What does this fold into?
Amino acid sequence: MKIIFKFLKWVGIGFGLFVLVMTIFVMIKKDRTFDAPYPKISAVKDSLVIQRGKNLVYGAAHCAYCHAPIEKVDAIERGEIVPLSGGHVFDIPPAKIITPNITADKETGIGNWPDSVLARSLRYMVGHDGRALLEFMPFQNLSDSDLTAIISYLRTTEPVKNTVPKSEWRLLGNILKALVIEPVGPSEEIQMSVKPDSTIEYGKYLAQSVANCRGCHTDRDMKTGKYVGPFYAGGFKMPSEINPALLVVSPNITTDPTTGRLANMSENDFIQRFKKGTIIKESMMPWGQFKNLSELELKAIYRYLASIPPIANNTGPVLIPAE
Ligand code: HEC
Ligand code: HEC
It folds into this structure.
């Protein structure tokens, strides 16, 4: 008997020590920083470039969907130009992430961050303070000229003073930050510029690197953001922002005849669908911002999606109970 108690005592002490060491390790490593090159990108004053940036910010790249306060939801739905003053909350398992103010305000926005710092966070996902940014933004492969256009436009925005609360990281999030989350850089060679036209090539660029169609319409692990299903076959379950009791499931947007949404949508149906905006109010899709997509952009995206192999994957109903 005595021997067993002694043994259990040592197991207890051993386990306690292990937890202590792990806790100290996580506390030290959770704020680890990373290095990445600073892209040679500088804002310009050319009005055509600034206009291109504005079109991307309030259209395909839908920055306002995430960087405008939630009170602006109706204006965003109407596709309006709302200030990017931050404060949108994403409540995901690792943390309550609160988006930063990205207006030109020097104190509470990005007014004092150099162009190269902004360019590095969008291209290499290494934030201004060196931390790895969570994979919310898909802009790593943006062309040099589109990155320049976006930053040039951000420089022209009206500064809005708005101090956004800090994101709140849970234990799981701190463990992931210490051990798993690393910055994700470009996956292909960066192009100087990509010509906006109705080609499959431009559609692919928009769907993957700008509008994040792939990021939402592919199944992903909610904890790490990693892709776990075939691209564009849907099945990514996101917590609804309107009703926490529901999960929103992204549909399959391939042309698979039985399970793909594109099978029964002509190019014109697709364009008309985007003009309508949100139909399912719990939807996470930034329909309001996508109302600002041009027909050319929509054609390109449609043609790209129609060109990829159909994938059979029944994603079931769009709204399901969150457990
Ligand atoms: C799907 C939501 C989403 C979209 C769309 C989005 N962002 Fe973000 N952005 C975030 C989140 C979330 C963070 C904070 C990430 C973190 O702290 O890990 C962030 C952080 C940032 C940062 C701060 C990086 C740093 O250095 O700390 C900048 C700058 C930024 N976004 C700019 C943009 C621009 C410009 C666009 C549009 C071209 C955009 N974002 C679109 C969600 C989004
Ligand atoms: C933030 C996540 C998100 C992004 C980004 C996103 N979607 Fe969606 N999408 C959804 C969800 C969720 C639904 C299901 C609810 C709905 O219909 O609004 C959906 C629905 C759809 C539908 C079906 C609509 C219908 O009425 O049948 C199509 C088509 C579609 N998305 C295409 C796209 C394309 C193309 C892009 C990129 C330009 C895109 N989505 C970007 C989440 C997203």
